[in-house]
Amino acid sequence: MKWIVLDTSAIVNQPSTVSFTSPQATFVVPESVVAELSRIDSGSTGGPRYVPLIANAIDAGTAKVIPITPPFYQDAQLSPPAGRLLASVEQIKKEHPAVEVIVATDDHAVAAQTRTKGLATISSRELLTRYLIGAASQPGVAERAKHIVGTINVWGTFLAILLLGASLFWFRSRYRLAYGVTEVGVGIVAAARVFWPSFDYSAVTGLELLQLLTGLYVMVRGRDNIGRGIAGTRFHGSWARLFPN
């Protein structure tokens, strides 16, 4: 199991980190980081509000807040918040020895001190690339996937029409005679369907008249393809006499 401890710098640089979840890791926000983000929120005018993001992540179960107890980590090169972060990391390792802890931070001093303790670090950008981008549970992905599947009858129809058109073009290019015969047959059926079964010419509507014209057009195109398909054969002369160009 991996626990990724989110530093203040990682959350500020990539606020979306607390809104994601990954099947590979559990995201942990130390209590000291929440306090520091609260101070940032109180001084912010129009910027992103980080504490509400964390609260939403906790409610959604995508992150957990870990309280820490003194003593805090002391180092002259580190700010007090950074020292409290490292204290949180040490506390996590002590209380959960079986957990692999990774610190997500963009603070170089924190990263250096963390590595001296034999712990792995990762930047916020690396975190997004390695653990978060493409996660199936990323908010919105499941909804978008559901929408795509739900509209398959719409986009699937257009895709099928394009593929069928390309397939017919391939068939016509290689088997023009058979394609032409098929066209003539389809044209006859389409035109005859206008009158079948009553053959009442007075009942023909404008839409049916358009279908009749379409059927006749397909028949003409079929005849042309038949002529091209038998070109160079012993039947071409007879065909040319029946249907001269």
Query: What is the mean pLDDT?
Result: 79
Please outline the major beta sheet.
5 strands, parallel
Taking strands numbered 1, 2, ... along the chain, how are they ordered across the largest sheet? 3-2-1-4-5
Helix- and strand-based class?
alpha/beta
Order of helices and strands: EHEHHEHEHEHHHHHH
CATH fold-level topology of the largest domain: Rossmann fold
Which spans of ≥5 residues are poorly predicted at pLDDT below 50? Answer: none
- Whole-Å distance between the termini? 79 Å
Strand content: 5-15%
Assembly of the depicted chains: single chain
Radius of gyration: 35 Å
How many helices? The count is 11
CATH class of the largest domain: Alpha Beta
**Record field, number of beta strands:** 5
Share of residues in helices:
55-70%
Number of domains: 2
Overall, the morphology is elongated
Please state the second-level CATH architecture of the largest domain.
3-Layer(aba) Sandwich
